Automatic annotation (TrEMBL):
UniProt protein name: LysM domain-containing protein
Species of origin: Anaerosporomusa subterranea
Domain of life assignment: Bacteria
InterPro entries recorded: LysM, LysM_dom_sf
A Pfam family recorded for this sequence: LysM
CDD domains (alphabetical): LysM
Domain LysM: residue ranges: 30-81
């Protein structure tokens, strides 16, 4: 029984770490309008801190805006992006 309890606690802890993303906090989000030529990668690069992994920011932008794995965006579209942390 102790083994099962330990496994359940480990799984819950793991899921908490995986799904807890400080960039996804709504108070740390701003809204931008997509311009012609923009890509999710370009926007992520513009809204990331100097040593931050751009892939992480791309992932957060996709999550915040419910974009699919292709991350297709259109000019004029409004996107939530994480505020840059210095």
């Amino acid at each position: 029984m102790k083994i099962i309890t330990g496994i359940v606690i480990a799984i819950v802890f793991y899921l908490g770490i995986v799904h807890a993303n400080p960039l996804a906090d709504q108070s740390q989000v701003t809204v931008i309008q997509v311009r012609s030529g923009d890509t999710v990668w370009k926007i992520a690069a513009e809204h990331s801190a100097e040593r931050q992994d751009i892939r992480e920011v791309v992932s957060v932008i996709r999550q915040l805006n419910q974009l699919n794995h292709n991350g297709q965006i259109q000019p004029g579209q409004l996107l939530k992006v994480p505020k840059q942390s210095m």
